[in-house]
Amino acid sequence: MALIFVAIDPETDSDHCPAVFVEEDTGDLLFQGWTVTDATMLAEVDRHSPVAASESVVRLPARMREIILEALSGRGATVQRVDRGDFQLSGSPRDEGHVHA
């Protein structure tokens, strides 16, 4: 199993690192996010889709929508991103249309 790292939350700090990955062989998405523990929110989720003991509900910030869409489109390994480390944070990104993974 090989994971393609799509990107990390662009406003992340060293302790909170929501991220998106794609499993290379299956195309499955993996989300690293904050575990939802609020009972009211979990009850609302459970009303629509019961959460099994082997499942988790995670929260990703809205600012990651573009990253999630990138993962869904299959472009996760082809778009250069500062938040993936494709560029140095001190420089300006240049989109050359590809990334060597």
Explain what the structure shows.
- With 101 residues, the protein is of the alpha+beta class.
- It has one domain.
- Helices cover 19% and strands 19% of the residues.
- It has 2 helices and 5 strands, in the order E-E-E-E-H-E-H.
- The strands form 2 sheets. The protein has a 3-stranded antiparallel β-sheet with strand order 1-2-3, covered by helices on one side. Strands 4-5 form a two-stranded antiparallel sheet.
- The longest helix has 10 residues.
- It is globular and about 35 Å long.
Keywords:
single chain, alpha+beta, 3-stranded antiparallel sheet, two-stranded antiparallel ribbon, 2 helices, globular, disordered C terminus
Q: How confident is the prediction overall: mean pLDDT?
A: 79
Helix count from the secondary structure assignment: 2
Whole-number total of structural domains: 1
Spatial ordering of strands, largest sheet: 1-2-3
C-alpha geometry = globular
Determine the fraction of residues in helical runs and give it as a percent range: 10-25%
- Gyration radius, rounded: 15 Å
SSE blueprint and pairings:
Elements (H helix, E strand, L loop, with lengths): L2 E6 L10 E5 L5 E4 L1 E2 L3 H10 L9 E2 L5 H9 L28
Antiparallel strand pairs: 1-2, 2-3, 4-5
Q: What does this entry show, briefly?
A:
The protein is α+β, with helices and mostly antiparallel strands.
